[in-house]
Amino acid sequence: MGATKRQEILYNPAVKKNTVRVYVPLLEFNLLGGGIALSSHGTKTATRLAANASPEPFSNIILSFVGDAFTLGGTLLRAVHPAVLIGIVLVAVLISVFFSRWVFRSLKKLFERSAAPSLG
Length: 120
Fold this sequence. Notes:
This protein has helices at residues 26-52, 58-80, 82-115; strands at residues 6-12, 17-23. It is mainly α. Helix 2 crosses helix 3 (82-115). It has a domain at 1-53.
């Protein structure tokens, strides 16, 4: 028995044979889905914060329409081609992981330079 799957053999009298049910732990999938949702909501919140800081209203209107289009497109894609949507989500998660690593490295370098004592 693997660490990620548990098999349970049951006798099914309707078919007169043993059936095997495979249970995949749902905790890992729930945590993964929650992490993806948390990152997407955090990105949306940060984008809204940056857009609301601008004095002109056009960026807010455009962001609202683009967000609605992504929501509608994602919903339709999930209904018609869910595998394509999973691929898009995985690519977006990978891009966000690499981008966040780049941001953290840049911030670390910035704070290391500002914390270094000045000689002159």
